[in-house]
Amino acid sequence: MKENQDNLMEKIVSLCKRRGFIFQGSEIYGGLAGTFDLGHLGGELINNIKQSWWRKFVAEREDMYGIKAAILMRSEVWEASGHVAGFSDPLTECTKCQHRFRADQLTDTKKCPDCGGELSAPRQFNMMSKTQIGAAEDSSSTAYLRPETAQGIFVNFKNTIDAYHPKIPFGMAQIGKAFRNEITPRDFVFRSREFEQMEIEYFVKESEWEKSFEHFQKEMLSWMSELGIDMEKVHELEVLPEDRAHYSKRTVDFEFDYPFGKKELFGLAYRGNFDLTNHKLDYMDPDTNERFVPHVIEPSFGVERAFLALMLSAYAEDGEGENLRSYLKFKPHIAPVICAVSPLLKNKPELVAKAREVYALLKKEFGRVMFDDNGNIGKRYRRQDEIGTPYCIVIDFDTLGENPDLLDTVTLRDRDSGSQERLKISELVSKIKAQL
Question: So what's the pLDDT on residue 142?
Answer without folding.
Answer: 81
